[in-house]
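Supplementary Note 2. Why include the ligand at all?

Several targets in our set were suspected to adopt different conformations when bound, so apo predictions alone were not considered sufficient. For every target with a known small-molecule partner we therefore ran a joint prediction. The input for 3-isopropylmalic acid is given below.
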Amino acid sequence: MKFNIALLAGDGIGPEVINEAVKVSDAIAKKFNHEITWTPALTGACAIDAVGVPYPDETHEICMKADAVLFGAIGHPKYDNDPSAPVRPEQGLLLMRKKLGLFANVRPTFTFPSLIDNSPLKRERIEGTDLVFLRELTGGIYFGEKGRRDDGETAFDNCVYTRAEVQRLAKKGFELAMTRSKKLCCVDKANVLETSRLWRETVQAMEKDYPEVTVSYEFVDAVAMRLVQWPNSYDVLITENLFGDILTDEASVISGSMGLMPSASVGEHTSLYEPIHGSYPQATGLNIANPLATILSAAMMFEDAFGLKAEAEAIRAVVNKSLEQGVVTEDLAPKGSKTYKTSEVGDWLVANL
Amino acid sequence: MKFNIALLAGDGIGPEVINEAVKVSDAIAKKFNHEITWTPALTGACAIDAVGVPYPDETHEICMKADAVLFGAIGHPKYDNDPSAPVRPEQGLLLMRKKLGLFANVRPTFTFPSLIDNSPLKRERIEGTDLVFLRELTGGIYFGEKGRRDDGETAFDNCVYTRAEVQRLAKKGFELAMTRSKKLCCVDKANVLETSRLWRETVQAMEKDYPEVTVSYEFVDAVAMRLVQWPNSYDVLITENLFGDILTDEASVISGSMGLMPSASVGEHTSLYEPIHGSYPQATGLNIANPLATILSAAMMFEDAFGLKAEAEAIRAVVNKSLEQGVVTEDLAPKGSKTYKTSEVGDWLVANL
Ligand SMILES: CC(C)[C@H](C(=O)O)[C@@H](O)C(=O)O
Ligand SMILES: CC(C)[C@H](C(=O)O)[C@@H](O)C(=O)O
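The joint prediction is reproduced in token form.
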């Protein structure tokens, strides 16, 4: 098969981890007789520096024409402490999500047996954890009207959801639950928010179409607790944009595999695959960032965007092997043991495919 | 001294845990020669059942006249799964916060040496954890305009903050930091939300008035991660209402002392003291709920509302003693060891004061 993949490396460590994902993807393609054309495009702070906007039209065109988008990370500290910066890298990310119609962000959290003792949580709390968040990604407070009043003394952000937006996300949640343990948790704050009450009533009304799925409804604050206490009690969770942002980050560290979690964003046009970690500015250019989350995102891309399960499994298998054999970047290496550079991990994976 | 305390037991296990806090407070009062008058008042689901509203005017009058309010918990499952219920217990809680002007919710998270191994987190991750959240409690998305449009198909919740609201909360944060390690973390989502940018710029402008305080600015998703990874890297954290709701609940379980964390809400009128746990409906009437969070909230009340440090210390000391001697409810007891009923824990504390 032939694929055209848009390559959005972004900022910080983005280019470094993307590099390794490209290496591994190319090796897989060769092995399975596929042909990949990579089309690089600018996004984030580097796009602002180059052309003044964080998601240029040209980048969007490239993404729309591609079979998939592989994304690194964006963000730069020079924007973070300047609340009044007129253009911000994150605007590019949000615009990209909106224009590509990426309304569902799929974020799994699972454990790697060989890494379980890296977790801040105790082994018995996390063993067997294998959950997936479906985070709504193009609505809510991220995209509602926002601004200032009263000469800048009052700020507001509006959170808005329509029933149709909830339905299309929840539908993906029910469908995913059907392929797994048939347990779905709807996370909201229905005791306070009207948008949450719309979420809850919409999901309740859909229950009858999926009689085999057991649905629970939990408040976001309770989930923030239980994720730490008993992560393995969850399976598929659906939630709105901002709650999803907070909870998926929280979930990513409990697995013991921080820096390893991949994600997919799917919707109306081309799907996008990216690590859930950020641009990690302090590590930029040091060749120390962990490339595995990006490489595992490429595996998700092979499986979900191209329907190539064997290719995906081959990537996952070699990643597992590298973990078992301790071919890991410094974030995963036990004290005193040998560590590998970002590019060395990629090389090893290619050599061992 | 003489005190008049409004007693709002609320729903679920509220009355049971409040009972024990009253016992212990009365014993302390006797020992130190104070006189407490308790004035019970209705709030929550039980108030709806009795008089049709969750925070009756009469209750508000009682709170306004009191020297402090001791609060149990509110909430009842019959309202949670009915998104369209016209009156809800939580409305009472929010109305109470608003009418009493309780704009700052003080939520400490600390570890008890004897309970550290109860934590889902590893000992080395949490040892020394001693942090305090100051959560804004009367603004933000909780209190902004909310409702439906388009025949109920669209829901919205508006998040609004004024600079003055941020300033008064941040001022308490800076002041608290000055009495502790002089480290303040402002938690926001300034890369996406306009209200967060107002928070960040307001706190930045206040830095010059507290030159000794080191301020850091972190995104809420990053804090949700780092709270699990390195809780002991934080000291004082300030944040808006909804982020505070989620993060303080998350923080409460990492300490290894879930169910033990007290809180205070302070502002323009009478201050209020309450456990951070909820109404725990499944345990209602079983005399098994842990009363310590409420008893420690009473200790906060003695210290902060009445300026009685020795009395507060005496309560904390006897609580510590009960933990060390294993006089604990079933949630804290190691498997197979003796457990005590809610009322037995209270009796033991009174006998050992
Ligand atoms: C960078 C930021 C705007 C983004 C978000 O909040 O969605 C990030 O945290 C994420 O989760 O992808
Ligand atoms: C019951 C609910 C409305 C409340 C809140 O969200 O503030 C509770 O979770 C809390 O933290 O006190």
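Chain A touches chain B through 68 residues (CB under 8 Å). Residues 106-256 of chain A form a domain with the Isopropylmalate Dehydrogenase fold (CATH 3.40.718.10). Comparable summaries for the other entries are listed in the accompanying table.
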